[in-house]
Amino acid sequence: IPIERYRNFCIVAHIDHGKSTLSDRLLELTGTIVKDGTNKQFLDKLDVERQRGITVKAQTCSMLYNYRGEDYLLHLVDTPGHVDFRLEVTRSYASCGGALLLVDASQGVQAQTVSNFYLAFAEGLSLIPVVNKIDMPSADPPRALRQIEQTFELDTAGTLLVSAKTGTGVDKIIPKVIEDIPAPTGDENKPLRMLLVDSWYDTFKGVILLVRIFDGTIKPGDQIYSFATQTKYTVGEVGIQYPGPTPQTVLKAGQVGYVFFNPAMKRIQDAKIGDTFTLLGKEKIVEPYPGFEEPKPMVFVSAFPTDQSDYQKIAEHIGQLVLNDRSITLMKDSSEALGAGWRLGFLGSLHCSVFQDRLRQEHQSNIIITEPSVPTKLEYPEASGHGALSGKTVVISSAADFPDQDGFTRERRPKSFEPIVFASVATPKEYLGRVIELCEVARGEQQGIEFFGANQVMVKYIIPLFHLVDDLFGKLKGATKGYATLDYEDAGWREADLVKMQLLVNRVPVDAISRVIHRSLAERLGRLWVTKFREHLDRQMFEVVIQAAIGKKVLARETLKAFRKDVLQKLHASDVGRRQKLLDKQKEGRKKLQSIGNVTIDHTSFQKFLSKS
Ligand code: GTP
């Protein structure tokens, strides 16, 4: 099949608007998968995706279609459905010539439809609006069409109205793709120029790369070169997903397919999304695809085994999970209170919570996961007594690295910056007041309000990532009966008055519970910490003082009275046997405990403290 009869396309949609269901219908329609229900949501591979209904991993599939007597080779490139994977999304779009802009007929245009539209538009894709779920009683296709016209300034005259569920109208889609989406351009006689779109790990074959060939050809045995890592590889196999991996003798300009190496690429981290490959020796004359970026982890959590004897088992499981997700960073961590553990970095809050869910599911009460935190940027002034750090700018991801501010005048303290995001919230009008209130509480700065359609409104805010991670989305959903949708993108850093708050138990800091926060939140959070910690701490043989402090300044305090007196006070002094028994019992209860200074703390207290109340 010549390049003029290739079509590469993807589906731009908000979560749950039916991307996976529609993909399945298209694969059935072209005979790529058999219509018997067993292939349900073929493109949604991972379990957790199914559970959460989120496409975490992009997968692609090729299809053959005969249109007016000629065979066409179609590549449907699946894109991750959620916002933390913006980089993957843009790379997927870059490999396509066009996209179906899918809108749910009952929900209309939502926050992610809009932001994904802009990404697709920026990549120069031809967009075909498709209104889905027209079988639903609450469907309102004319409203969806009006919103598409107003928001995207697209001509909706020939818009396809479909139901991915029942199949109504779906047969019109592929002819329209062939008519409206341009064939890829590219010259197979030029040297190889290949973009890495996605990757995944296979136990036998190592890392498998999903690629789009822009120029040239690639076949087994070729020696190729990665611009991002400056490493060379020998091609082991090339092929297309049809629907499973189907080896080909060669992949040519215009095609989307997979490649793996022999010897295998071992680390998923070496497959850099957005990397360009060429034939070894051609790296001087081939221009790499522009805009390559390393993913930056922006949300961090630490995890510890409740019982150190589980360390190995949990370490292996985390290792496996990370093997399949190149965007997670993993480091060893250790805490005085909780022992040895791990520190994990994620692209964003949803990415983080999907991973947390998987860990909790597998290890339940055997794992303690700290609250998510975000990085901090510190600018140290020159000649200021900060030693080697003077005059330097550093980004830290752990509160443990936040400097002690006591003893420095304001001018000599490092300037602190927090990551911010540009957030768009779409909501029905009646909840606008509540949405604005929540964004303001989250220290948001309003950037604009747009009304679209009769009832929808989109507010735009610059918001600290700290608050986004602190379940802003959950709060928005709660305040809008689940209607609000949120989308965000990285907006850099903003100077902020940040401080490190610590929890002290009998004046000794508990390192697992320290956080970098905005000063304005200190008072309230300090109160919350001490009350909550007191609630979950077992009584001790002596009085325990629990404090929340910034440096030397104590913001909140609670005392837990001694226990011993209470246990024994009601007993008669001569009842020695019973007295000994009670004391033994107390001792036993202390077995799997950790001590902070002279205070012993049960691990479940940490777990309860750290779990959301
Ligand atoms: P993500 O993978 O999370 O991005 O979601 P998605 O956009 O792929 O949506 P998915 O295909 O999983 O569909 C979401 C829900 O809508 C599922 O429960 C589908 O069964 C349902 N659904 C999809 N298309 C239709 C349709 O045409 N009509 C009706 N009634 N339901 C549909």
UniProtKB/TrEMBL annotation:
UniProt keyword list: GTP-binding, Hydrolase, Membrane, Mitochondrion, Mitochondrion inner membrane, Nucleotide-binding, Protein biosynthesis
Organism this protein belongs to: Zalerion maritima
SUPFAM superfamilies: EF-G C-terminal domain-like, P-loop containing nucleoside triphosphate hydrolases, Translation proteins
Function, in words: Promotes mitochondrial protein synthesis. May act as a fidelity factor of the translation reaction, by catalyzing a one-codon backward translocation of tRNAs on improperly translocated ribosomes. Binds to mitochondrial ribosomes in a GTP-dependent manner.
Keyword Mitochondrion: yes
GO biological process: positive regulation of translation; translation
Pfam families: EFG_C, GTP_EFTU, GTP_EFTU_D2, LepA_C
Compartment(s) where it occurs, according to its Swiss-Prot or TrEMBL record: Mitochondrion inner membrane
Protein's name according to its UniProt entry: Tr-type G domain-containing protein
Binding residues for GTP: 13-20, 78-82, 132-135
Family, similarity comment: Belongs to the GTP-binding elongation factor family. LepA subfamily. Belongs to the TRAFAC class translation factor GTPase superfamily. Classic translation factor GTPase family. LepA subfamily.
Annotated Gene3D superfamilies: 3.30.70.240, Elongation factor 4, C-terminal domain, Elongation Factor G (Translational Gtpase), domain 3, P-loop containing nucleotide triphosphate hydrolases, Translation factors
